[in-house]
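re: ur msg from earlier - yeah i can do the sodium ion complex, just paste it... oh wait u already did. ok heres what im feeding in:
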Amino acid sequence: MSSREQWGSNLGFIIAAIGSAVGLGNIWRFPYMAYENGGGAFLLPYIIGLFVVGVTVLALEFVIGHSTKGSAPLAWKRISGKFEWLGWLSVFTAFVITTYYMAILGWGVAYLYQLLFIGIPADIGGFFFNNILQISSGPADLGTFPILSLVAVVLAWVVTYVIINSGVKKGLERANKIFMPLLFIMTLMLVIRGFTLPGGIDGILLYITPDFSKITNLKIWVDAFCQIFFSLSLGFGIMIAYSSYLPEKTDLTKSSLIVALSNSFYSLIVGFAVFGTLGYMAFEQGVPITEVVQASITLAFVTFPTAISLMPFGREFGILFFLCFVIAGISSALSLMESVTSAIIDKFQINRKKTSFMVTVLGILGSLIFVTQAGLYWLDLVDNFISNVTLPLVGVLEAIAAIWLFKGEKLVEYMDRLSPIKLGALWKVFAGLITPLALLAFLGFQMYSLIT
Ligand code: PHE
Ligand code: NA
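and the outut:
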């Protein structure tokens, strides 16, 4: 189709793909996971996972999108009429994830508003649980809807809508070209601050000091593989859609390496900011650092704000942190929404304006579930199911279908033809054999832990 939209440049595509990959998961999930799984020792399974499943599947999705010029469902349909459903499975997953990703993003927006216009809340836990989540109002009660987060979630949706509505080059590419450099500079400022706060270095040491005794524990490998898959936005049809907008001449091998490495690099350094701040907090409160490290989402919304409330220029520092949070989140939300939007455009030939509007309205309705007090419960459930089961399953199916059932050999040639770095043969061994085996072992382990 000659009318398909295109990126303005290869760089624009790479920046947008990094924008998708670098998200909330890098900021609150990675540092915590690394800490919990043996600190620096986590890097070993993480780096192995980065190549075995990360780069391999990322390259696979790039080749699929670029060679078929279609979003996930259309791409699969063009590979084999029988596999269109696999594309829709990715797209459906993307839609579900968008609804709760936007809710978390909305909480970030709410904090930003609070810090910018009101100040650091006197009672931070109270602010998060009462004003944002309204959990204190008792059992699920739709009568008391958390207004602040509701407005913030709708706002996050509207911003995303406006950008997607403007198209690939004028919307996605332009937004990411502004967001990404900004995010990088602001993150560096947070990192420097993390290193220079009193107690900061202790926090950072806790984060990176390897505890190799954990390496034989299967859980650390599972966590690492899981984190990589989610972190690179794989299995959502995103990277397929993004690469379908590339011009003919492009280097997919190089692009997948750059995107994967940049994403991991970002995770690593943002951890310095997070743990430096936690170290400072422990120092101020005179407690062991291990006591201030919190699992899950409260790390960003309760622990971190508490830390900034203790420091000079805490408010400004907090604004910087939540700006990073929101920018990283929006650039990822954009990619999720683009996966859904492009699939509908390709399938039904409805124009972008109508499609993006429709997706936004449905999406806001979906997000309402996660904004309520019952939201946290649903969020955990959906998040676990999707990252532990759906994504790896899509990954296995993609790899087996593409390499074994259909044009495996052609895809390898295709990839090598476009790049001076000839990794096709090696890639085939990974994508066709090692990656699916690793993911199957992973899925087996998940099933096993489900029944025991
Ligand atoms: N990669 C994003 C992150 O690490 C999460 C994400 C997944 C974003 C899927 C978009 C799609 O936070
Ligand atoms: Na990521």
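cool cool. The first helix runs from residue 10 to 21. ping me if u need the other ligands too
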